[in-house]
């Protein structure tokens, strides 16, 4: 073996046994299971998303009670198992969405988000175009205010969806819901949905507003407003 070959082998072995540090965020019930919302975590290098999250589950076995329903992300994107994980990456762990727990309370984990129209308490906002908007807020949503923001002179029709907290789900009673968001990832996902809506339908503008925090029964959690030049669209 030449000196160059020996150096190459040594370098490969060094890379295989070295560690990388990543940041891991936990949301909702996953955070409750772990006991904290954020950690720095060491992974073997090289590693992919599947291996990285297996290592997280090994370190925090309480997460295994969620089974295959856990959602994982790397750098604000849902991760394919084969995706490579590098030093300094940010991983996120989300619990499954649920409507109610123990007949007392439901906890909702919101992966994509939006905020309360023109409410000054809006915490996060992103405008993909001049008139499209995607926002996240802790304040109540004004349905009419959101709808009016997509009504422009060139539009002839508007459709608005009002999503609110329901009390009963498959016989289980919910007293309230708690919505959380991973803001930067939520806004990116909402922008993606907006782009898909423009590609699939002849619409002019779209706005999505989602509330986070504790919501009582009947309170609006999300409003989606869409306008189009013609009613048929």
Please characterize this protein's 3D structure.
- The structure is a single chain.
- The protein is α+β, with helices and mostly antiparallel strands and 233 residues long.
- 24% of the residues lie in helices and 36% in strands.
- The protein contains five helices and 17 strands.
- The longest helix has 18 residues, at 183-200.
- The radius of gyration is 22 Å and the shape is globular.
- Strands 2-1-7-4-5 form a five-stranded mixed beta sheet. A five-stranded mixed beta sheet has the order 9-10-15-17-11. A three-stranded mixed beta sheet has the order 8-14-16.
- It folds into two domains: 3-94, Beta-grasp domain (Ubiquitin-like (UB roll)); 106-228, Molybdopterin biosynthesis MoaE subunit (Aldehyde Oxidoreductase, domain 3, Alpha-Beta Complex).
Number of helices in the DSSP assignment: 5
Q: Provide the domain count.
A: 2
Largest sheet, spatial ordering of strands: 2-1-7-4-5
Task: Classify the beta-strand content into a percent band.
Answer: 35-45%
Structural class: alpha+beta
Question: What sequence of helices (H) and strands (E) makes up the elements?
Answer: HEHEEHEEEEEEEHEEEEHEEE
User: Based on the structure given, which CATH architecture of the largest domain is correct?
Assistant: Alpha-Beta Complex
Radius of gyration: 22 Å
CATH topology of the largest domain: Aldehyde Oxidoreductase, domain 3
Spans of at least 5 consecutive residues whose pLDDT stays below 50 are 6-15, 98-121
Subunit arrangement of the protein: single chain
| Shape label | globular
Mean of residue pLDDT values? 82
């Amino acid at each position: 073996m030449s000196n160059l070959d020996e150096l190459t082998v040594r370098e490969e072995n060094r890379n295989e046994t070295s560690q990388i540090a990543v940041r891991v965020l936990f949301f909702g019930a996953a955070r409750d299971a772990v006991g904290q919302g954020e950690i720095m975590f060491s992974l073997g290098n090289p590693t992919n998303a599947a291996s990285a999250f297996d290592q997280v589950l090994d370190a925090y076995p309480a997460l295994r009670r969620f089974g295959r329903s856990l959602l994982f992300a790397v750098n604000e994107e849902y991760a394919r198992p084969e995706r490579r994980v590098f030093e300094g990456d940010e991983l996120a762990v989300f619990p499954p969405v649920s409507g109610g727990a123990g007949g007392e309370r439901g906890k909702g984990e919101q992966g994509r988000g939006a905020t309360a129209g023109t409410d000054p308490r809006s915490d996060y906002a992103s405008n993909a175009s001049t008139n499209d908007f995607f926002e996240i807020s802790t304040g109540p949503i004004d349905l009419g205010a959101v709808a009016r923001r997509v009504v422009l002179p060139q539009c002839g029709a508007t459709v608005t969806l009002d999503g609110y907290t329901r009390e009963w789900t498959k016989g289980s009673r919910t007293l309230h819901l708690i919505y959380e968001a991973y803001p930067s990832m939520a806004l990116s996902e909402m922008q993606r949905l907006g782009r898909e809506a423009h590609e699939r339908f002849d619409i002019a503008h779209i706005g999505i507003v989602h509330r986070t925090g504790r919501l009582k029964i009947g309170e609006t959690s999300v409003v989606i407003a869409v306008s189009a030049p013609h009613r048929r669209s």
